[in-house]
Design goal:
Helices cover 34% and strands 16% of the residues. The chain is α/β, with parallel strands linked by helices.
């Protein structure tokens, strides 16, 4: 099967809640005899959820957003390469069976297989690409499927080198998310990258949200625009080589614009751009609301513009519901990237009709988003300090990487290549390549059979 213009093996990893049980399955497309299935015990799901709560920069319990970022960057399982590797091994051992890991090891190939993942709501923010591959000895001795008690004070596990060599699932396969089946099968626009690739891109970079000060919760993501910043220099190079939307004279003019609202975007998308990059604020649908379509991005929309979201001060967010009601008003290009808080968390809901689903119904074939909120550069420096950063800007590096990947022949595989490079820096002890950033990226690709 060919996916997004490339050949090679395709694998599908799916989790499903059936009654009170959660089942996992892994299959090779075109070779059903190799399918493996297993039950994920509820105790394992609870342990996996606890691991995610401890690691991700998502407020847990009475934490504030700042507390959650501080914990994730400096004290949680992702704070150091050693603790992160053990965390990634534990998570993979809880969720994938011995037979699943064995099948994955048998599918190592060049080019890498494409692995499509469909999680359940409880596993929606799991960074599957990070999962550490068990050693052959670990598989043979049954240390995969180890009970949660052995992770939390019961039987002592062997030393980490006996459990994993440090290789990750992303090194076996290019790990992508499968869009919800009901979305892919619904009547929708189909747009070809090959037909659009030479058209200008739409760049929505840190739009100015009405009524929000730069230092407010919906203020600037990238800080004061500067022509010397890493991000501005990247887009200056693009401007020198091609036309972009909005039409500007300098890269700095792309940032903090107050004219980029949903009306402007609707008009612009009618001109058939090649791709869309949004860097800014997103609001995930509240977990207790039950409606994924309440997910929103924050453009420069004033409160006077009608829509389905409640007004925030003098601003009305642009929700998935707004897009779903009439996708023809916002016909999306084949590639969309949302570098914004938890923009890829559709699967947290049983009906995964969030922002990613809406973009796909409107025409996108590839959508890159994030599983959780990313600390801004200022936030990273605040909690990590200049020494840990080593002069690098992890948020800027991520934005440049995603934009570059979406200009490449195969966007999803290009995102994966960057993640592997960052992971290897981290694995080699470069703490400036923090997994809070590269681990958050996921790409939804239409194409799994």
């Amino acid at each position: 099967m060919a996916v997004n213009g490339t050949g090679g093996m395709t694998l599908v990893l799916r989790f499903a809640d059936v009654g009170v049980a959660t089942y996992g399955s892994l299959r090779v497309v075109g070779d059903p005899a190799r399918t493996v299935t297993w039950v994920v015990a509820d105790s394992h799901l609870n342990a996996a959820t606890a691991l995610l709560d401890a690691a991700l920069p998502v407020p847990y319990g009475e934490e504030s957003a700042g507390d959650a970022i501080d914990r994730a960057l400096t004290a949680g399982p992702l704070a150091s390469p050693d603790s992160e590797l053990r965390w990634s091994y534990q998570l993979g051992s809880l969720l994938l069976s011995v037979q699943a890991w064995t099948l994955l090891s048998e599918c190592v190939a060049d080019p890498r297989p494409m692995l499509f993942v469909t999680p359940t709501a409880r596993l929606a923010q799991t960074p599957f690409a990070m999962l550490a591959v068990p050693t052959a000895l670990s598989l043979a001795n049954g240390l995969v499927d180890t009970t949660p008690a052995e992770f939390s004070g019961g039987q002592e596990l062997p030393d980490l080198p006996e459990l994993t060599d440090g290789y990750r699932l992303m090194e076996i396969a290019d790990v992508v998310m499968a869009p919800p089946a009901n979305i892919v099968r619904a009547p929708r626009r189909v747009v070809s990258w090959e037909d659009r690739r030479h058209n200008p891109p739409v760049l929505l970079l840190d739009p100015r949200v009405p009524g929000q000060r730069p230092d407010s919760p919906l203020g600037s993501v990238l800080g004061r625009p500067s022509p010397t910043s890493v991000v501005a220099q990247h887009f200056a190079e693009i401007l020198a080589a091609e036309t972009v939307i909005p039409d500007v004279g300098t890269a700095v003019e792309l940032f903090r614009r107050s004219d980029i609202d949903r009306i402007w975007m609707s008009r612009t998308l009618q001109d058939e751009p090649s791709r869309l990059l949004f860097v800014g604020h997103a609001s995930a649908a509240p977990g207790d609301a039950g409606y994924a379509e309440r997910a929103a991005i924050h453009l420069a929309c004033k409160e006077s513009i009608p829509g389905y979201a409640d007004v925030v001060g003098t601003h009305r967010p642009f929700t998935a519901a707004d897009l779903l009601v009439d996708t023809s008003r916002w016909p999306m290009p084949p590639r969309v990237a949302l570098v914004a808080c938890a923009s890829g968390s559709d699967y947290r809901f049983d009906e995964a009709t969030g922002m990613v689903a809406a973009l796909i119904l409107a025409g996108a074939e590839v959508v890159t988003a994030t599983l959780w909120s990313l600390p801004t550069t200022a936030g990273y420096l605040r909690f990590q300090g200049e020494a840990a950063a080593g002069g690098r800007d992890p948020m800027a590096e991520l934005i440049v990487a995603v934009d570059s990947a979406h200009r490449a022949d195969d966007a999803a595989r290009s995102v994966g290549r960057w993640q592997r490079a960052q992971m290897r820096r981290w694995r080699d002890g470069d703490v400036g390549a923090h997994p809070i950033y590269w681990g958050a990226l996921v790409t939804f690709v239409v194409g799994a059979d």
